Amino acid sequence: MDGRHSDILVVGGGPAGLHAAFYAGWRGLQVQVLEARPVLGGQLQALYPDKVVYDIPGLPAVVASEVVSNLVAQLSGLPVSVQVNATARHLSAHNGGWRIATDDATFTARAVILAPGLGALTARAARVAGAEVHPGVRTEVPEAAALSGKHVLVVGGVPQAVQSALELVDAGAHVTLTHRRAGFRGHPAQLARLDQLRMEGRLEIIAPALMDRLTSEDAVLLEHGTERRVQADTVLLLNGYLPDLSPVQTWPLNWNGDYVPDGTGGQTVLPGVFVAGDAAYSGGSFKLISVGLAQAAIAANHAVHHVNPELKVRPGHSSEKWLAPRPRGPGEDGV
Ligand SMILES: Cc1cc2nc3c(=O)[nH]c(=O)nc-3n(C[C@H](O)[C@H](O)[C@H](O)COP(=O)(O)OP(=O)(O)OC[C@H]3O[C@@H](n4cnc5c(N)ncnc54)[C@H](O)[C@@H]3O)c2cc1C
């Protein structure tokens, strides 16, 4: 049984996928984005949300996570739906268009824009003694509100560990944050807040400390060689991510290693299937945000024309067209 239908399916919620969704949505088409991770943003959000990026046109220095927030904000008001925790696995022809199956749903569309980047960013496996006996070990961050009132041990020095610890405190969890090194990575504002919460006694930090083992009810840390037992209903092991392209590499796209050959407009060998971003061969392995955004704009507009030939490939200029919510120009004080 086929699930949701849209005009265009975008595989991957990184910068290329989000910008492709923007363009197709802005042209008035229904867009469905499928993202394997629980959150959007691709490599920027998973691998370096705290780092400053200097080579995005018009933004001299911007934190990667803010690039993501802005790409997402740009979708506001457009006919774009997002499905997270959805890894696109199978592609098949359907009624002149395409059907994509994830683990628990199918999606159909007239065109597909593939923007998988380096691959589905999956959490690194947890290798902690006793992980199999503790009932609450997680490697992906759950909805913070679900852990309200619980004792949560967050393990890791990556930005996700800091962000999760803050969100969990806000949600009313009793949080302990630990890492084998003394320092944590994160947005400066988040690091400052972490310090403030620690000083207020609203969050405990045990670092540097080694995670020695988990038992069925708590965690045992080694701090300066001394054992410390930490109460933990949930243990979040946040170790970063590994990319996995294999779910889409079975698709018959004449893959050239990690790249999909593309012609004019990002068109692949399958009619109505386009590619953009790090995975597009035409990018010449540049793997840059600015390159991916340009490819996304081109692929999305070709996909729009493929779906509805009455719509021209070239989109015209956004500055000349109405786009809700319309920002006011100089001298304009209302609609
Ligand atoms: C540490 C680091 C620093 C960087 N710094 C810069 C910089 O300063 N400037 C710059 O221009 N570039 C930089 N880059 C490169 C830049 O991040 C990439 O070029 C960019 O993220 C590519 O965007 P994308 O949308 O093609 O892919 P990605 O960002 O990789 O996003 C792809 C998304 O698709 C999802 N996905 C994959 N497969 C599936 C599937 N089967 N189903 C559903 N979802 C799927 C993934 O989970 C991911 O979220 C940096 C990269 C790294 C690792």
TrEMBL record:
User: Do you know which Pfam families this protein is assigned to?
Assistant: Pyr_redox_2
**GO molecular-function annotation terms?**
ferredoxin-NADP+ reductase activity; flavin adenine dinucleotide binding; NADP binding
- Annotated cofactor note: Binds 1 FAD per subunit.
In terms of SUPFAM superfamilies, this protein maps to: FAD/NAD(P)-binding domain
Enzyme class label = oxidoreductase
- Reactions it catalyzes: 2 reduced [2Fe-2S]-[ferredoxin] + NADP(+) + H(+) = 2 oxidized [2Fe-2S]-[ferredoxin] + NADPH
Region (Disordered) location: 314-335
Any idea which positions bind FAD? Answer: 35, 43, 48, 88, 121, 278, 319
Cofactors, names only: FAD
EC number, as in UniProt: 1.18.1.2
* Superkingdom of origin: Bacteria
Please report the stretch or stretches of sequence annotated as the FAD/NAD(P)-binding domain.
7-296
Q: Does the keyword Protein biosynthesis apply?
A: no
- Identify the keywords attached in UniProt to this record, alphabetized: FAD, Flavoprotein, NADP, Oxidoreductase
KW NADP (keyword) present: yes
> What does the annotation say about its assembly with partners?
Homodimer.
PANTHER family membership: THIOREDOXIN REDUCTASE 1-RELATED-RELATED
User: To which protein family does this belong?
Assistant: Belongs to the ferredoxin--NADP reductase type 2 family.
Give the protein name, as stated in the record.
Answer: Ferredoxin--NADP reductase
Its source organism is Deinococcus deserti (strain DSM 17065 / CIP 109153 / LMG 22923 / VCD115)
